[in-house]
Amino acid sequence: MANTEQHSFIRVDPEMTFPVKEIEALGACVPQVLRNYLNQYFEDYQMHLIHLYNFYYYLKASFTPVETDLTIKRISEKDDYLVEAFYKKFSDFDLDDADIDFDKADPVIWGGFKNDEMIAYSSHRYSSESIADTGVLVDSQYRGKGYGKAIVGKDVSWCLERGVVPMYVVRTANTKSIKLVEGLGYDRIFDVYVLAAKE
């Protein structure tokens, strides 16, 4: 289920029992009313909706680069060894949370360097021809210094120069990443909820 401020979109597994007619009977309603109804309906199944992701888009026409002492450069294929060494600093969970696919390199990758060591990474893949889905990782020793914001900002500038809309998907539990993206001026466009078993 995805919610914007005034609309909800529901994707349903065809094998699943789902109250389609009851939802239609609710008519036009705000997303919170629909979420409450679904939580109540699935109570008997020991299931409930969990707010899992927020989708942010940078919808402004221009971007002011973030001032930083980080050296940021675009990573090419000849720099793969730098990326591989950087990835090794992180757990599988960290890589997944940053939406980084180790097996398939994204088409645009940025490296952030301090003293010739790669300490920050940002990349994007295209979810369509005009939307770039961004991921970011910063070495734990260098977090809280604005490097994540600076390297994602570099990607925002690159995208805007090419007519591409930057998108950022973040787990709702990742408050630091939410602070980063909101600090850059992204707009939260919709939220994603999933139906899960109660623990």
One letter per element, helices H and strands E, the order comes to EEHHEEHHEEEHEHE
Give the CATH superfamily of the largest domain. Answer: Gcn5-related N-acetyltransferase (GNAT)
Helix content: 25-40%
* Unreliable residue runs: none
Instruction: Give the strand order of the largest sheet, numbering strands 1, 2, ... along the chain.
Output: 2-1-9-3-8-7-6-5-4
Number of strands: 9
Radius of gyration: 19 Å
Compute the number of structural domains.
2
Q: Would you state the CATH class of the largest domain?
A: Alpha Beta
Corresponding CATH architecture of the largest domain: 3-Layer(aba) Sandwich
Shape: elongated
Q: Notable features of this structure?
A:
199 residues, alpha+beta, Aminopeptidase, nine-stranded mixed sheet
